[in-house]
Each structure stands twice: as C-alpha cells, then as structure tokens.
Amino acid sequence: MARETWATRAGFILAAVGSAVGLGNVWRFPFITGQEGGGAFLLVYLLFVALIGLPAILVEFVIGRRTELNPVGAIRDLGSGAWNYLGWLFVAIGFVILSYYSVVAGWFLRYTLIGVLDGYAVADTGEAQALFGTVATGIDTLLFHAVFMALVIGIIAAGVRRGIEIGVKIMVPAIVALLVGLAAYGFTLDASTAAYGYYLSPDFGYLAANWTSILPAAAGQAFFTLSLGMGVMITYASYLGEDRNLVADAGVIASLDTLVAVLVGFVVFPFLFAAGLEPGSGGPGGIFVSLTTAFAGIPGGRVLGVVFFGMVGIAALSSAISILEVLVSYLMDELGVSRVPASAALGVAVFLLGVPVTIDLIFLDLFDLLADGVLLVLGSLLLALFVGWVIPDIAREELSRGIGDLGPFGDVWIWIVRVPIVVVVAVSLYLGVVDYVE
Ligand code: PHE
Ligand code: NA
C-alpha cells in the first residue's frame, strides 16, 4: 500500500499551522503568562520561540521528510540502539497531552453551546467564575470530552487528506480577525493602560528573581505551542512527498502561531484588569472568566462569543488530530494495524486517560505540568542531541532539499542544535523537574 501524502501543495503547511495554533495559544499562553509575571515571561518566551523553537521545528521536519515514517520508525531507521526508545517516549507523551487537551477543548465546546442556548448572562466576574466552576468538572464535562474525542477519532479515521486540510484555511484567518476586534475593544477599556504595562514592559528585577521558574515555563510553552517534542512535526513532514523549502515553512508556522498567542494577551489582560482580577489568579479558567464577562457586557456579545468559542474549538480539533495522528501512524506503520481500528482503539484509550481530569482539576495540573514542564522538553532535548551529534550530515543534506546551497546556514543551524539548544533546554528541563518534584 502506498503511503498517504498531502492532497494539495499547501496541505502540509496548512496542517502544520493547524496543529500549532490551538489551545496552547488561546488558553495556555495567557494563564502561564499571568502566572509567570507578564512582560518578563513574554520576553523570554519570544526569545525561546525564535532562537530555539525555529531550529527545533527544522530538526523534526528533516527527520520526517527523510524517512517518510512515523516517529518510532523514523528514529530507528536513522539511529540505532537506545535511540529506539525516543520514538516510544513521543507516543507516550502524545497520550498524556491529548487526554487533558480534549477535556479543555470540551470546555470550549460547552461555552459555545451555552452561548447558543442562553447567552453569556453573567452579571459580574463572580458569576463568570461560578459558571466556569460548573463547566470545569462533572458528568457534563465528561460528556463533552467524549464528544470531542469522537470528532478527533472520526477525522483521523477518515485519513490525512480529507480530514485535515480543509478547515484550517478559513479558521486561522477568522481567529486572527476576531482577536483583533476583541483586542480593539479591550483597548477602549480604562484598565488597558495598566494591562499593557503589565504585559509589555518586562520587569527585569522580577525576571532576575524568578528566572528558575520563568525559564522552564517558557521552554515548555514554546515547545507546546509549536507542537514540538513529541513527533507531530516528524509525522506531518513524513507525508510530504516533495522538496519544499522547510526553512520558509518553519518561519510561517512560528510567526502565525506567535501572532495568535500575542494577540490573545491583548484581549485577556485588559479584561482581567478591568474586572479587577489579579492577572495571575485566573489559572486555567482565566480566559473563560474574562471573556464571558466581556461578552456579557457588549452589544452583540452573544454572537461574538459563540463564534469565538466555536472557532477555538475547531482550532483545538486541528491540533488534537495531529496528536492522535502520531499514535495512529505508529500503530499502522509498525504493527500493520489499519487506520480505522487503530484510530478507534487509541482514541478510546486517550479518552479513558482523560477521565480523571473531568473529575478534579488537580489532574489537569498534574498532567499539564508533567507533559509540558518535563516530557516535551525532554523529547526536544533528546531529539536535538540525536540530530546534532548522531546524524548531522544527513540532517544538513535533507534541509538543503528544496532550497539548494545552504551556504553557512547549514553549519550554523547544526551548531545551534548541538550546543546552545542542548544547554538551554537541559537547564530548563532540570529546573522543570525540580519544580515538578516539589
Ligand atoms: N500546539 C498545540 C497548541 O498550541 C498543542 C500541541 C502540542 C499539539 C503538542 C501537538 C503536539 O494548542
Ligand atoms: Na500553539
């Protein structure tokens, strides 16, 4: 059986952008930024995306395109010995991430439905918080988690071409447009000046005092938001049967993803400040509390809210499918299971793993901190070591396909992967583990 490839020339980049843009930008970015002190975190995060995220995307792309295999097979093909376990680590990470990702995506579906049925009738932030409390856990939460996983399974069972490419074209521009509109509204609030100060001017004293928590948080968020460290970009590049300029593609993906995240900050912080809430107090509910308060207060807020929460739900779907696709491609390539049963079996397993998260948010914290603060960072670190030190020549050659002569860029890239990435990520990982164990 011939291996599938993307249906259109734009299919690959659309799917990769679809994977990157998701809950990491809209839900996770603002609450981590709030927790880690605002502008100081934003600065470190942006540096991480540009200096470490971008070269790390290329690391995954070259492995996938070179081998045309799932992450487990790809690494086995290129390396040997203990490297085989790295692919399995990716599969394990995928399980953990998708299990809680789906629960949070279910919250967005639920808020969409609340808007359709009742509107966002909250009189103040207290009521908005109470509403979030009813959405966050419970039997209905489990139901929405099930619905979301069923959608993910359905799309992945249908195959890479049809499922993934269509939605992204409309969705990403629509999200950007909505966010710009909401940010403009946030700008009109009296609290916006204080919010922008908090968000945009890094407090270097704060950074110096808190770098041991800011660094791992920024590393984890950068890898999470770019879908790195668990083989998604390896898998997507494995369906590329063509010589694209991977550097240009990585630039587009990282730029769009960063644009969406930064815009979300321009929406969330003015509203949090206007409601008199501590920017770090929102936690996983921050985006919901601030936005429902906002939507309740503006004309047309109900329609805006339905469109916004619905769009984010779709964005979450295009990210979630990329995670399940890693697991499915592994079962298909390695064990010869066919697509439909593989999707169903893995999807149900992920659903079950997510059940505790729908019962108590403690598990959300636990899974999220483990996956993000530790596992994704570990996956990226090992992959950088592998590409930089085990297969540098293959990697350089593969990167040049579709570009031609790399000039000094090829060596610069390999050396960034070999030393600075490894060192910075290893330090972040160490700090992240210490944090997790505490
Ligand atoms: N990048 C996705 C987001 O920002 C999340 C994700 C992480 C997807 C890891 C795939 C792999 O929402
Ligand atoms: Na993202």
From TrEMBL:
Top-rank lineage group of the source organism: Archaea
Membrane-traversing stretches: 12-30, 42-64, 85-109, 142-160, 172-199, 219-240, 252-275, 306-332, 344-367, 374-392, 412-433
GO cellular component assignments: membrane
Protein's membrane topology: Multi-pass membrane protein
InterPro entries attached to this UniProt entry: Na/ntran_symport (IPR000175), SNS_sf (IPR037272), YocR/YhdH-like (IPR047218)
Cellular compartment(s): Membrane
Keywords: Membrane, Transmembrane, Transmembrane helix, Transport
Any Pfam family: SNF
Name by which UniProt lists this protein: Sodium-dependent transporter
Organism taxonomic ancestry: Archaea, Methanobacteriati, Methanobacteriota, Stenosarchaea group, Halobacteria
